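Example 9 (inverse folding). The structure is encoded as follows.
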């Protein structure tokens, strides 16, 4: 009887309920903090068996949920995570008008039952109850019935994709609003990314294969950031290009020493600039000496790809193979696979 009187006189105070089942955290629990004293108001100490039951009525009725825990009380204060032993059903707070908590300590029921505040009802609105579109699998939360919008109620503005995740700074236009996607990691190893984005296909021939990847790494200094781009070559994922912290771009090299460092062949349809700063270019067949240009390693063909003399010029039609003077030359040589002609060229088509 002494024990019963002790707990019958116990006072449960500080009714704090915190839904730690925010987005995707499973199972949902309620953090309940209380106080136990004896009949004289002295704080209790020790381990006690506590039964936490949830009802939909102030008195009577059948418990909708019950869990038993061995709880340590220190200086009268205890803390229990309701739902840590038996998960709280996601639908328990779904649309219900009232839910009340009843606590039994070492066999003694403490009264009255205490109503829950608004926080546990977040299990439904935030954690995937029957009215939530989110589904739960183990410690994962997922949604596979459509698009997801953050800050926008109609995600997927631009056509061309099957699924969209849209992050918008605001639903309606507001000046100077910025949306950001933050990927945060804690690596200080230059070879281990702080964050990465993987691209893969669920097609049967590509299952479990990344076809491309972008990763961001820092290193020992947070300022030494770099972006590394990987592509799959049919066998494995390999680095294709990187941008180092100093702005140097490497293609085919992981240690670019210049703004653009390419190991391989470069093809371009045009270059801008006079090229005066280019160095280490391969030498062509022509060489220079002062203002002169010369070639001494073979024959030179003009109008032919198969020169048979040191200088071989072959005419085409009525175009002279040699011209001395201006466009209307006083001396020209015409050789169109016929007899060689010497004469005057009018600069157009008449050879006299």
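The amino acid assigned to each position is listed next.
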């Amino acid at each position: 009887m002494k024990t019963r009187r002790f707990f019958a006189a116990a006072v449960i105070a500080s009714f704090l309920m915190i839904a730690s089942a925010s987005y995707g955290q499973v199972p949902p629990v309620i953090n309940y903090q209380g106080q136990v004293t004896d009949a004289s108001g002295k704080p209790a100490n020790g381990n006690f068996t506590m039964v936490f039951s949830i009802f939909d009525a102030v008195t009577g009725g059948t418990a909708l949920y019950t869990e038993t825990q061995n709880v340590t009380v220190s200086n009268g204060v205890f803390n229990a995570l309701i739902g840590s032993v038996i998960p709280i059903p996601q639908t328990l707070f779904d649309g219900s008008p009232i839910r009340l908590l009843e606590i039994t300590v070492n066999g003694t029921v403490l009264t009255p039952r205490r109503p829950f505040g608004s926080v546990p009802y977040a299990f439904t609105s935030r954690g995937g109850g029957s009215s939530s579109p989110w589904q739960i699998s183990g410690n994962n939360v997922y949604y596979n019935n459509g698009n997801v919008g953050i800050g926008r109620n109609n995600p997927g503005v631009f056509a061309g994709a099957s699924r969209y995740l849209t992050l918008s700074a605001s639903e309606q236009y507001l000046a100077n609003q910025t949306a950001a996607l933050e990927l945060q990691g804690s690596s200080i190893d230059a070879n281990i990314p702080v964050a990465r984005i993987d691209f893969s296909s669920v097609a049967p021939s590509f299952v479990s294969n990344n076809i491309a990847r972008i990763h961001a790494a820092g290193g020992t200094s947070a300022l030494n950031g770099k972006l590394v781009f990987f592509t799959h070559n049919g066998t494995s994922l390999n680095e294709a290009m990187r941008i180092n912290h100093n702005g140097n771009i490497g293609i085919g090299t992981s240690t670019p020493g210049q703004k653009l460092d390419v190991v391989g062949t470069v093809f371009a349809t045009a270059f801008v600039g006079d090229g005066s700063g280019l160095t280490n270019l391969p030498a062509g067949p022509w060489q220079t000496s002062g203002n002169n240009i010369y070639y001494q390693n073979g024959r030179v063909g003009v109008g032919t790809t198969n020169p048979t003399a040191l200088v071989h010029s072959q005419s085409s039609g009525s175009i002279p193979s040699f011209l001395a003077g201006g466009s209307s030359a006083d001396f020209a040589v015409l050789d169109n696979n016929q007899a060689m002609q010497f004469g005057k060229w009018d600069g157009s088509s008449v050879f006299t």
